Amino acid sequence: MATVDLNCDLGEGGADDERLMPLISSANIACGIHAGDALTIRAAIELAQRHGVAVGAHPSLDDRENFGRREMPVSPEEVRLLVLTQVRLFQKIAELSGVRVRHVKPHGALYNMAARDGRLATGVVRAVREVDPGLILFGLAGGRLVEVGRAAGLTVAREAFADRTYQADGSLTARAQAGALIHDADVAVAQVRRMVREGVVTATDGTVLPIQADTICLHGDGPDPVEFARRLHRGLRAAGIEIKTFGP
Question: What pLDDT shows up at residue 220?
Fold first, then answer.
């Protein structure tokens, strides 16, 4: 049976964390910069622990006003310090609950910038290695973060998206553009099934792109994220794809 990790960004102030957690295998938890605080971090970590879900840090650019989704000029050293500070705090809070942090996934604009820019990717990778070189790094499949992380000796998870569309260059369609988000769970299931089974995804212009996905992201801030997640979960299992945490 084919397997894939299913991850979701949580601890961001949404009301659906408790209902989403049983449907996923990895949780990317906001580190208090773009959303949340120490209390929400701990609550999300402990919720993940109760459901046997792998726990990951979800560090962001320092731009809470725009939920970390606005690109801004930052140097590789600024990125290193931002990620280092957030992941270290997250790790300390996890330790209080007796939980091991398994992975790091940058959030929003930082994620997209590090996927394109090798210098910024290096800043993220350096921070992760300083905290714990055993942490798994999540990055956009085919992006620079995956490439730089692997070259630095990190275990990387190539990430694809269930609820986002792709451009012909392999990048995600910008959220501001029409058609960036997939709201129909049947369409999402079909996209993920092709990614896992065939190693391809169809871009918005019809181009069929190769893609390797170790983990699939769904977002918790859609119109009905719980029902979307349930239908995706059922659809993948019906297609003979087991949802399983990535890595050893």
Answer: 64
Whichever domain contains 224, its CATH number is 3.20.20.370
pLDDT, tens digit, 9 for 90 and up, residues 7-24:
999 999 876 899 999 999
Considering its fold, how many domains does the chain have in total? 1
Task: List the single range of 105-119, 132-146, 173-187 with lowest mean pLDDT.
Answer: 173-187
Q: How confident is the model at residue 222 (pLDDT cuts 50, 70, 90)?
A: low
Neighbours of 212 (CB within 10 A): 13
Q: CA dist 210 to 25, 174, 196, Å?
A: 24, 20, 11
pLDDT of the residue at 18: 94
Alpha-carbon distance 110 to 124, whole Å? 9
The candidate with the shortest Cα–Cα distance to 209, out of 161, 163, 181, 168, is 168
Question: Which amino acid would we find at residue 51?
Answer: H
**In 12-35, which positions are buried (b, 16+ CB within 10 angstroms) versus exposed (e)?**
bebebbeebbebbbbbbbbbbbbb
34 contacts 246 by C-beta, under 8 angstroms:
no
Structural domain boundaries, residue 150: 2-243
If you average pLDDT over residues 126-153, what whole number do you get?
98
Q: Which residues of 178-196 are buried (b: 16+ CB within 10 A; e: fewer)?
A: eebbbeebeebbebbbebb
Torsion on CA atoms 57, 116, 246, 182, rounded to nearest 10: 90
Q: How far apart are CA 155 and CA 97, in angstroms?
A: 25
User: Given CA atoms 44, 46, 48, 50 in this order, what sign does their dihedral have?
Assistant: negative
> Would strands 208-210 and 200-202 be described as parallel, antiparallel, or unpaired?
antiparallel
